[in-house]
Write a structure and sequence with these properties.
The protein is α/β, with parallel strands linked by helices. It contains ten helices and nine strands. It has a single domain, classed as 2-enoyl-CoA Hydratase, Chain A, domain 1 (Alpha-Beta Complex). Helix content is about 45%, strand content about 15%. The termini are far apart.
Length: about 260
Amino acid sequence: MSPAIKTELADGVFRIEIARPEKKNALTAEMYRALADALARAEDDPAVRVILISGAGGNFTAGNDLADFLDHPPMEEDAPVFRFLNAFANLEKPFVAAVEGVAVGVGTTILLHCDLVYAGASARFALPFANLGLTPEAASSLLLPLRAGHARAAEMLMLGEVFSAQTALDTGIANAVLPDGQVLAHALERCRKLIMQPAASLRLTKQLMKRAQQALIRETMSVEAEIFRQRLASPEAKEAFAAFFDKRKPDFSKFA
């Protein structure tokens, strides 16, 4: 277990905290592996009724740690990041997120698979895949248009601009926006309310809500992952990453 992924089980709530605050909780391959393992344990443990994920230090996650990402590119189907994406996409138990600060890349796409999402008023979201010469992940190319409509999803995925907690609420990514500092407490309160419900009924309700889309979600994730792996070797991605580390704007004008 990575020291940057903390877990705790108390009164039926399995808490996962992304705890790398000095890097705004940016995720490494080791952290993805720990997250996938934690979700597997939570799903298998009958004492776990609800899973709650949050971030330490006032942020949810800044997405991938790009230096680690380039050192450990996810070129295989069983790469830690893909294990994690598949784990949360297939969870049967209720999955709740408490989001404060930044939620970038996977920090936003994971929310499309949560059952309940609560965001702080100053939370900021972004899906900068195209900006990096990459493509969407975690079935976001399917789920985001279904939630937000094509026009708003295109703006989010193609321009990769930062958007607010209010926009996340308006587009169906979040259930509610709370004052900063009150998000985790509110999410825990909702988790406790879920625990009072019959566990089997909740699992079956979630299964029924996802039934019509689940096969399509799995297929979309598989196609996205294959294209994502191809894009990692693209000239555009190489230029985007070089520009990031050089602290300059990328120049995509020479690419068709």
